[in-house]
């Protein structure tokens, strides 16, 4: 066990865990933030997607010891204009079904719009194909990303 | 909180399937799902509806919400008859109560068979109508005017004098009003919400878009222990001996106990529990384990399929008709074991104080789960509280005929003893390798075409029963055979004079379970790929040929015509290398036809677009119906292309999404859905979007000159 101070959503959390503990479990069981989900544990499904210093990361596969002083952002702390636009579009189109993967989908989608304000379908495919949705809400995810992009214009 | 306690009227309402209608809330800690901010409500124990002093209307949904939309569906039905404004509506799960909250199809509380809207349509409308009548009576009494002079519109109670009030104002007084026994329901022509576009939005979208929706994995209570279990790698294996010394040395581990399903590690948090679980040294006793692999099962099933099974249904003389000669078509379809792999792996939470137990998880069958917990703990069912909560998908996985998760939950709780809340968590690998698969099976089909006509059809099925030995056997068995193994094959929508369907019901030591659309997952493929092949042999168009054989099946024909028009089947000019295929399947009394357009890529088919027509009777929530068709198509496509759980010496091979390939966004086709207008009783949509997709893909491949895939998945080797 070792003590780590993680900066998550602008707040410092003291977490006492084994250094090999994936960031996901430090966020969930340590910091008590449960919006970030466990789906596979092997960086295959994207349900655990968070930002580390603004970069999307599969938190299930990043040991907490590698995070250091980096800023971690989870769905609870997503406050970028892209994030807000994506969440609004998600609700407007009733994207979620079971909803379990959607935190990860939204984190990936907001990151995409941050890098590419007008993504094509192909851009969306490339940015979002690491996020599995077993309910297959993909048609609406695609439409909502286009909708969010449009809402951010001008 | 007060509850109207007129025993007589309550009894008669219960008889009518309505239940106590109104409760008044006292603010406490519960959150109901809403499109905007969630209101805190206290759930009355036997009610379908709670009207708050703030005029929010919370519908207690007896069906589990895991994406298919019953929160929104039930709330729509109530709001329609209550004349509520949609912004007032909230929903939450009803607790376990087999009398009040039973599914009127099953007779116990449970969700499945795409039955939520079908069995609740009248019941929940009555709930809304009863509450409306009582609110109006309360307002009439308060205003000293006849009730007949009062109207309700968009959540506002109005009198012709200009007086008006909110639901919240009259909720308490309404509780004192007599409940109408037979509340008058609206004429469908006056519906404002049911079937309307754009008025109703899902109640759970917001909470599922900002991370606040609570699933079982998210439960965290003081002193809670997370439990991860080492289970036998082979089904039927048991613990012979184990060494937990390395596991117990992991920091955060509290205890290790043997339980009936394996060896359980109790820890403070998931990661130490999982780490320690993986360090257990266990010797398994495989003397009673299933040790056959899928290759062996295939050869055994194949041999059986060439012998006659027990006849399930027949007409005319199918064997005789085939013996007469003509163009004989004989094919074998092989269907793999499939895991459900919902995004949230299985899990469950329970507190047990030695006398009473309180469990929370995504229980899809609360009544049997409730009984199972009570039985393990040796207490009466009245000492168990079971609350279903949101679940991250199911596709059938959480409706366990054996109640195995509830049993395991109670066992791990019992083993560690009272006073220690436990959260049982299955890892993805535990979930994927934990059995309860869509059964492995074979269809051997023979058909004969003479003079452009299908004269004979036989379908010999080899498969495992889902329900054998379970409490549901009585409900699903007929003449010793599991109807879920042949539904869809034993009765086909086509006029074929000489027909036979027979079944070899085989015992295999692999636990199997219903999987989104149950028997239709394979019978839909077998029947629709085969009829297409026979029509091809007869020189008929796939749409016209089917229609010509559907003299008694107007709703099948209706969706087929609708989808053909939607896709412009007759006249569409396709790009080079593309082809279209069609299929139509009725499941759970809902009729779905799909047309697929695809081309062939390096790996296999690339599906570009799917057109879908659905007839589910009265469409309650059109946008949810579309969403379920979209999701059903994507779910079906991923599995038909890639998914397979293989067994190596009895051990399931695929353990995660790297070895059990799931559809991703780049593989998702465009989808266009048409909901066929109907005034028939509403039926479900959670499952029926699945079955036609696979055969439509196969039939499109045939148009490109490729064989219709005989063994699924289409892309062999994509999994494992």
What's the short version?
The complex is a heterodimer of chains A (154) and B (720). Chain A is an alpha+beta fold and 154 residues long.
What's the CATH architecture name of the largest domain in chain A? Roll
Taking all residues together, what is the mean pLDDT of chain A? 97
Strand tally of chain B, please?
31
CATH topology name of the largest domain in chain A, in short, is Ubiquitin-like (UB roll)
Distance between the amino and carboxyl termini of chain A? 50 Å
> Radius of gyration of chain A in whole Å, from Cα?
15 Å
Rg over CA atoms of chain B: 27 Å
CATH superfamily of the largest domain in chain B: Aldehyde oxidase/xanthine dehydrogenase, molybdopterin binding domain
Q: Percent of residues of chain B in helical segments?
A: 25-40%
Q: Strand share of the residues of chain B?
A: 15-25%
What pair of chains forms the biggest interface?
Answer: A-B, 59 and 67 residues
Mean pLDDT of chain B: 92
Low-confidence stretches of chain B: 1-21, 23-31, 34-46
